[in-house]
Design brief:
α1 packs across α2 (47-54), α1 (39-45) packs across α8 and α3 (126-139) crosses α4 (155-166). The protein is globular. By secondary structure, it is α/β, with parallel strands linked by helices. It is built from 8 helices and 16 strands.
């Protein structure tokens, strides 16, 4: 099978022939319909990223996949061959990952794609929606507090403003002027400028780090999305960062909410697998709204 890999000595992803995986106990093999390209993939595909993340080893790329179950492990009963599913591969240094013609996942990492949700577009959902939900959980209950989401027009931030609003937060999204219509469509407020120490909590989807910490009131809460680069605490602020983890039950709920129209499904475009390098360059350049998907 073809697999998109980060290969030492190359600054762009490589299409590599790999053996088709065989599912073991508790595993599901998915025949890929689409897989998303995220900024972290573009970084890991570079020589610097390969060295920092994978220790200079060749590794697979990709976090999100949608497709149909091709095989199941001997003890898997929740899924059957042919089921439409989406999944989250959270093994950042796996030999083969979601950007491949076949993807091997633990059964607990996948969920059935409900009717009403396009199977190709479903590949845009897992990583960023699960990250946003798990980041919000770190903030605790709203309790009338104000929340600022940075990067509110982006992937994690876009889900975060919608999920926070649905959970009862007094939420404002920080973004570019062109993001205002989308952010307000979630029911959240919007701003392009923030005064220091003006929110009870900040979810830093834009990875502003210390710059976003400045927006938190004394004694407030800050949640980042880069656990490998923690932000030093100050002014009695509780500082933490989300480390996304697969959660099939949560993913199933997020897929359902997407199918129901509660969460916007945003796809920037699709391209065939052999055009991976071109798509990675676009994603690595930043500023994308919605996810680029590779289709085998």
């Amino acid at each position: 099978m073809r697999s998109i890999q980060s290969v030492p000595g190359h600054d762009e992803p490589q299409v590599v022939e790999r053996d088709r995986p065989v599912p073991g106990p508790g595993q599901v093999l998915v025949e890929t319909v689409a897989a998303a390209v995220n900024p972290v993939d573009a970084f890991v595909a570079s020589s610097l990223g390969t060295d920092l993340v994978a220790g200079g080893r060749q590794v697979g790329l990709g976090w999100d996949v949608s497709g149909r179950v091709a095989e199941v492990g001997p003890d898997v009963t929740a899924y059957a061959v042919g089921d439409p599913v989406a999944g989250l591969d959270d093994d950042m240094v796996g030999a083969d990952r979601a950007l491949a013609e076949y993807v091997l996942l633990d059964a607990e990492a996948v969920a059935v794609v409900p009717e009403g949700l396009d199977l190709v577009e479903a590949a845009s959902i897992p990583l960023n929606s699960v990250t946003a939900h798990q980041a919000l959980a770190l903030l605790g209950e709203p309790d009338g507090r104000s929340l600022l989401v940075t990067g509110a027009g982006g992937a994690v931030g876009g889900y975060a403003v919608a999920l926070a609003r649905a959970a009862g937060w007094d939420v404002t999204g920080l973004g570019r002027p062109g993001d205002e219509e989308f952010v307000r469509s979630t029911g959240a407020g919007f701003t392009a400028h923030v005064e220091p120490a003006s929110y009870d909590a900040v979810l830093d989807g834009a990875v502003l780090q210390a710059g976003a910490l400045a927006y938190v009131k004394d004694g407030g809460t800050f949640v980042g999305v880069q656990p490998s680069q923690p932000v030093p605490t100050e002014r009695g602020i509780t500082v933490t960062a989300v480390q996304v983890r697969r959660d099939g039950a949560l993913l199933a709920d997020l897929l359902r909410r997407s199918a129901d129209g509660e969460l916007a499904v945003r796809v920037a475009g699709t391209a065939p697998l052999h055009e991976a390098a071109t798509v990675f360059a676009k994603v690595g350049g930043g500023g994308q709204r919605g996810r680029w998907l590779l289709v085998p």
